[in-house]
Amino acid sequence: MKSEKKRAQEAIKNLEISPYAKHVLWIAAFVSAICGGLYGYDTGIISGALLLITKDFHLTSGQEEIVTSAILVGAVIGAMGIASLSERFGRRVSVMVVTAVFVVGALACSYAPDLISLIVARVFLGCAVGGATQVVPTYISELAPASKRGNLVTLFNVAIGIGIFLANLVGFTMREKWGWRPMISVAAIPAAFVFISMFFLPKSPRRGNLTDGVILDHFLVVQDFLYV
After folding, report:
1. 126, 131, 196, 213 — which has fewest CB within 10 A?
2. Is the Cβ–Cβ distance between 218 and 140 less than 8 Å?
């Protein structure tokens, strides 16, 4: 333990801070917060699409309720399952998994040929919704210094509201022009953007027993000094 602390202190002395560190932090927070927008959009778009889905699949009122609530079932599963994944493989990989599920889930919903396929796809998409609520705020908070942590995590919550607003806007203005399938599948575009962007963003620090910094794989990030 003492040797690790001594090694970390030596690393702090030799650490060179990139002049672009602050910009990277904000970009990472912005890109990750898009997941909040996906959360809001994917849960809100059903309000505009459900009438069209009912018309295509001849749904009863009970079936409408199942289609609507299926994403919430998946959200519970995703929220519980992402914890072990993020602890084992890290936050950045977990965010990439969540965005990949967003892409696949949105496309699966839009191409669903029947009611059962749509319900299964909605449950799968819900896994991304639940996973995003857990891992994205964690990724941002662990990446940010204490002085900026609250503001950056708030981006995720704001993005949820924006996503819901956009879902209602699309449902109101594009329902007749697009139909319900493009309304749902369009969410795959920002999700794919986040997935690709995460390859170029830093990993989340893994918290250790040190008070001044944390070991991040092969180098050390000093959270409260890096972005001053």
Report:
1. 196
2. no
* Residues near 57 by beta carbon (within 8 Å), at least 6 away in sequence: 63, 114, 115, 118
CA distance 112 to 200: 33
Q: Is the dihedral of CA 94, 100, 102, 105 positive or negative?
A: negative
Residue position matching structure tokens 């889905």 = 53
For the chain, how many residues are written? 228
Q: What percent of the chain has pLDDT over 90?
A: 50
Asked whether the beta carbons of 124 and 105 are under 8 A apart, the reply is: yes
Segment holding 215, helix H or strand E: strand 214-216
Residue 106 to residue 97: CA distance in whole angstroms: 14
Architecture, CATH, for domain 36-223: Up-down Bundle (1.20)
Closest among 196, 190, 224 to 210, alpha carbons compared: 224
Cα 7 to the center of its chain, rounded Å: 35
The residues spanned by each domain of the chain are 36-223
Do the beta carbons of residue 63 and residue 55 sit within 8 Å? no
**pLDDT band at residue 157 under the 50/70/90 scheme:** confident
The closest alpha carbon to 202, from 170, 176, 226, belongs to 226
Measure the CA–CA gap between 171 and 148, rounded to whole angstroms. 36
175 vs 160: CA distance, rounded Å: 21
Give the H/E segment covering residue 183: helix 180-185
